[in-house]
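Work through this protein:
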Amino acid sequence: MEATQIRRTVEVEDRHWWYRERRAILARELRRISTPGRALDIGAAGGGNTRVLIEYGWDALAADYSETAVELARERGLQAVHADARDLPLPDMRFDLVLAFDVLEHIEEDHKAVRELVRVLQPGGTALITVPCDMALWSAHDVASCHVRRYTRDGLNSLLTGEGLIIDRMWSWNVLLRPVVAWRRRRISGSDVTEMPYLANMGLGAIIAVERYLPVKSLPGVSLIVRAHRPRSSGGCAPA
């Protein structure tokens, strides 16, 4: 992600409905884990999700390929390291939890990034991953965001399990607003991560929040979310 896009994200993410609901999803997943430990936030940008980890008691490290992102995260008082997701400068089996929120779609060699994620994850540790889905939604937004691809369920499943993760759950997100997103992205020439009018932002936030309680997570959405873990047995380790 380019420096200008990262700065734009940091400027709007505290208020923007999409980022707010994604942080709420992260918070719900963290509540499933009884004991906080060490966490790594890969592709952390300015550290919006890293702050959620800290709020829930995790010893969290932000990592990003962009020096701008690392600088912004440190300005926010976060531990941050400059790192390529395909070659993390971190020890084996260091973390109890690893996040990769909207990271893999930026990387041509996404299997290498998953392999590194597994390498630094403790056996039995949890991985939380989000990606944009469905190439039918490909638009100028993806180009402006430096995406390489959007994923299918089968493709993402094969990628993660092929590098040693066991998927506990995979579900669609942003299902209710998919038609709105598709319509808007056909009409814009760049990223749709922008400051929004207050009422529109609140309205979209209310709609996406309703999705938490509806049985729509198997339907086509805009994103896929995965909760997975590294198996405890040596047989499930990532390939060398």
Q: What stands out?
A: The radius of gyration is 17 Å.
